[in-house]
Amino acid sequence: MKGLCILLVGVSVGVMGCTDDGTECGAGTTEQDGQCVPAGAAAGGVTCGIDTIEAHGQCVPNLHCGSGTVENAGACVATVTCGDGTTAADGKCEPDVTCGKDTVEMAGTCVPTLTCGDGTITVDGACAPVVTCGPDTTVKDGKCVPDLQCGDGTTAVGGVCVPVVPSFLVRAAVTRVAADGKTTIPVFAIGSTADGAPALDPLVFTVEPATAGTFPDADATLTALGFTTTFTPCDSAVPTCTGTFTIRIATKADPTAILATTGAIELVAPPPTTPTDSRREVRR
Q: What is the value of pTM for the model shown?
């Protein structure tokens, strides 16, 4: 019958119990929270040995600290008794720091109290004079340095005023050209002023050496989109028409003031003309 439990006590029979459903627990076991567990088990079914106790479902040492010791974080540690002028800290006696006048304790040491006088301030643990700079100057590394006010045509670079140079560019469409005296190649030039606006200067196109060819429009005035002209190379039949040359631009007011130059361009002898080519040229 459920709920009925008969307990027998005898010389050879241990204590028996029964669970909620009437199940009898055998020898060496006892009922605990409706279940049969070993006799002497702590709550949660944990059986702890000698000098241990159950704590949160685990067996932990049952500390019995001796004379002169106390329990600390699960261990017996010596009781610290500090003498005069010392204080217990982390299980050790540390000397008491008593700082005198105009000193303060810092990391266990007395250091002077920094009191700066008039006209000085604390800088990196020392008294330094207060720097008061005049007009157009700024404090830098404890000194007064002039504020940079660069004039027209200059700009500040690394704390110094340097000239702003107008920028010009000239480019040819090829790096090799047939020295046939008639082939033309486009040449482009563009520029900007010191303030970044388009340069609208009158220019002149030159070639070095001068025997390398000619420009039908050597003089030009730049526009916001630049300027394009053409270059006609020399004829290889002329002995001096060999090697490399460069194209340059200069101001019209001073053609010796070179503004920009191309890289080296090579003059290449054209292939020989065949009789058929000659007849085609005559028909034209």
A: 0.42
